[in-house]
TrEMBL record:
The keyword Repeat applies. SUPFAM superfamilies: L domain-like (SSF52058), Protein kinase-like (PK-like) (SSF56112). Residues 335-600 form the Protein kinase domain. This is Protein kinase domain-containing protein. PROSITE patterns: PROTEIN_KINASE_ATP, PROTEIN_KINASE_DOM. The chain crosses the membrane at residues 238-260. It is found in: Membrane. GO terms for molecular function: ATP binding; protein kinase activity. The keyword Cell cycle does not apply. The lineage of its organism: Eukaryota, Viridiplantae, Streptophyta, Embryophyta, Tracheophyta. GO terms for cellular component: membrane.
Length: 614
């Protein structure tokens, strides 16, 4: 109640200054000391479900007084909640504008079409969460503060002022709107500025460079502010050119490495051709899971697909979860043409099209898994008893001494890995979908952990390529339980699980939490887990950046551009960081993780309900 009173008093004071003491034109619209802003729906005030003021929009009210942010931002609860202040099209002037920096949750500040003057305070550059800034059609003058420091900025509208000096080196690809026309800016337009057209820069007589037609003369300073008129090379330039040289060298070495690798891969392919999977069970089946591409190579080279270097396998075992899949017998499946989908650390996956049955399957050949046939069979049958709608069940499996095969339904919509890292470019993976994938995957994993804990069967190899998606971007956890069990040799766990941090005494269940944490980090940062960032893995990199309090820097630019809630992204990041704790014991259980993510998802849903135009 005290808070509510403070907020109300602050808003009334704020309006008093804006309106020169005249108050709101229509007294039934609130803004008085006898009602409350959220409960009584004051005009222009938007609140969330907890009655917290989020936005204040008083555009077009013909206010001719003073905008004084100290009236709002000195009240702790308002300063912590306010995200948008909008006062477009009044005739306001400003006072104590630098106090706005205390409202550091502000994402939108719109004061276009007023009578603000003087310089924009340096404190603006401290508004880390700012996304949209509209100061257009005022009389601001002087040099801009270093707004380029604000990494999430997507709109800067500053046209029709008297601003001077250089344009900061903004991250232009991030911007949706950029306009500095009709000002007194000078010097070169920074690199990337030509993403916006001439009209966004026009009427700044001393501005030069693309997209403007007037080229920059050989000024003493170039666009990066370096002195280029000096003869000879400066130390910085020597360093820079050495850097280029080193980068060039590394690129050449990488190309040589790739050429050698490709050559080796080609040799391996021909090798595969000769190692056609042969499954000679009691009914003497010869089968191949080689791609049709390879088959043609085989035929051309005169090697029979039916020939098998591994020779006949005695006492082979074929087990189907049902004896037929849509009328398809396992023998037919094994004979069908197959296309290699990918080769992972633990084997290869083939896409198999069974035309007669109208089915497409994904067959995983597992390599180097020293599990006995009977244990394998038992394990697969146990897994088959545990069903969850977001966990992809195997439809069949096969086991011999040489081979272990798992058959799944083929999922045509790719994986979280493909969606994030560029092979499904035309599909949007927005914040809401990422949060949904995170929450559903956590719930499905929690179910599996609970059901299979006694059996000691965790996923064992959880990563973004094993989270497949349907066309509504709902996730399916694939390959659950294919690898190590809790009771198995733990050294196998750390060798098979690329995400397993050292010291995971709680076995693969805690390893799954680590793997899940890395998937969250991939979805939040858009970065590949194996990509090294200054020599660190993704988890270490994120933790180090967050420790330096540069949290916003880690987020995927597309999420920032989309306007995803930073508060909720930070919330999910904190969960991810807990999951990738180097100490396995310190990691939360998947149940706790699922609960935490669901809380964020609920907040997101509530905010969607209360958002929308003011
Ligand atoms: N049922 C399926 N439907 C469609 N694509 C699949 C299916 N199962 C796996 N894939 C895809 O096939 C590719 C290869 O999978 P594979 O499991 O061999 O690779 P990986 O996950 O990178 O490595 P590994 O699991 O061996 O560590 C991956 O891109 C994966 O997303």
């Amino acid at each position: 109640q005290v808070d509510q009173d403070d907020v109300r008093n602050a808003l009334v004071k704020y309006l008093g200054k804006l309106s020169n003491g005249n108050g709101i034109p229509d007294p039934t619209q609130g803004w008085n000391l006898t009602s409350y802003p959220c409960k009584d729906n004051w005009v222009g005030v938007k609140c969330d479900a907890h009655f917290t003021v989020k936005r204040i929009n008083l555009d077009h009210f013909k206010f001719s007084g003073i905008f004084d942010p100290s009236t709002l931002c000195s009240v702790q609860s308002l300063a912590a909640s306010l995200t948008i202040i909008s006062l477009n099209e009044n005739t306001l002037r400003g006072e104590n504008i630098d106090e706005l920096a205390n409202c550091n949750q502000i994402t939108g500040f719109h004061i276009g079409g007023n009578q603000f003057s003087g310089s924009l305070p340096e404190a603006f550059a401290r508004l880390n969460n700012l996304k949209r800034l509209d100061i257009s059609r005022n009389s601001f003058s002087g040099v801009l503060p270093d707004l380029a420091r604000i990494s999430g900025l997507t709109e800067f509208s500053a046209q029709e002022n008297q601003l001077s000096g250089p344009i900061p080196k903004f991250d232009f690809p991030n911007f949706n709107t950029f306009n500095v026309s009709v000002n007194k800016f000078s010097g070169p337009i920074p690199r990337g500025g030509d993403l916006f057209n001439v009209s966004c820069y026009s009427d700044n007589p001393d501005l030069c460079g693309a997209p403007l037609t007037n080229r920059c003369k050989s000024l003493p300073y170039n666009s990066s502010g370096d002195d280029t008129s000096r003869k000879g090379l400066s130390n910085d330039q020597i360093l820079m050119y050495s850097g280029y040289f080193l980068v060039g060298l590394v690129v050449v070495l990488l190309i040589i490495f790739r050429v050698c690798k490709n050559k080796k891969a080609k040799e391996e392919r021909y090798d595969t051709v000769n190692k056609v999977v042969a499954i000679n069970d009691d009914s003497s089946i010869n089968a191949s899971f080689v791609s049709s591409e390879y088959k043609s190579v085989v035929n051309k080279s005169g090697v029979s697909v039916a020939s098998a270097e591994s020779g006949p396998v005695s006492a082979s075992l074929v087990v189907l979860t049902s004896p037929e899949v849509n009328g398809l017998k396992f023998e037919e499946l094994l004979k069908a043409p197959a296309e290699l989908l990918g080769r992972g650390k633990h084997g290869s996956v083939y896409k198999v099209i069974c035309q007669d049955q109208g089915m497409t399957l994904a067959v995983k050949r597992i390599k180097d898994w020293g599990i006995s046939s009977s244990d394998f069979k038992q394990r697969m049958q146990r897994l088959d008893q545990v069903k969850h709608p977001n966990v992809l069940p195997a439809v069949a499996f096969y086991c011999s001494k040489q081979e272990k095969l798992l058959v799944y339904e083929y999922q045509p919509n790719g994986s979280v890995f493909k969606l994030l890292h560029g092979t499904q470019l035309n599909q949007v993976f927005d914040w809401g979908s990422r949060l949904g994938v995170a929450a559903t995957t956590a719930e499905a994993l929690a179910f599996m952990h609970e059901e299979l804990h006694e059996d000691g069967i965790a996923h064992g190899n959880l990563k973004s390529s094993n989270i497949l998606l349907n066309k509504n971007l709902e996730p399916y956890i694939s390959e659950y339980g294919l690898m190590a069990t809790e009771n198995q040799d733990l050294s196998l766990v750390s060798s098979v699980n690329s995400y397993q941090a050292t010291g995971a005494s709680d076995g693969t269940f805690k390893g799954d939490i680590y793997g899940f944490g890395v998937i969250l980090l991939e979805m939040l940062t858009g970065k590949i887990s194996t990509v090294q960032n200054n020599g660190m893995d993704l988890a270490t990199w994120v933790v180090s950046v967050v420790r330096e309090e540069w949290t916003v820097e880690v987020f995927d630019r597309t999420l920032v551009r989309e306007g995803a809630s930073e508060e909720r992204m930070v919330g999910l990041l904190q969960i991810a960081i807990k999951c990738v704790n180097r100490s396995a014991e310190a990691r939360p259980s998947i149940n706790q993780v699922a609960l935490m993510i669901n809380t964020i998802r609920e907040e997101e849903e509530r905010s969607m309900d209360t958002s929308g135009p003011l």
